[in-house]
# Entry
Amino acid sequence: MATHTVSAPTEASTKLNHQAFMLLRTIFTVAPILFGLDKFTNLLTDWTHYLAPLATDIIPVTPQVFMYGVGVIEIIAGILVALRPKIGSLVVCLWLLGIIVNLLIVGNYFDVGLRDFGLLVAALALNRLAMARDR
# Structure
């Protein structure tokens, strides 16, 4: 009968885990806040081009007003990641999933959808690191 011994985390692995956690928490705090703020200024791009018409059929507002709401939610998500990374990272995962579904409905911007899938996986990794920190 084989036994498997699990050793305590080394100081080096603990430090590496902390660094990975801090990198992911920082980017998932800063990026949603900056992108959320840009929904009000459209300096980076005209965000309404990425919005599926179905969205404004469900919520009957102009695409720009819809994007203002998106901006508010993104800012809140970024703040939540900063303050409560376990919960905030899951909110970001769900938000990114919503963006991906929206882009698939648009039928364009598949490259952006693929990038956002990678971000979703990174947000999930942040969640796992945050969970490990609490143990």
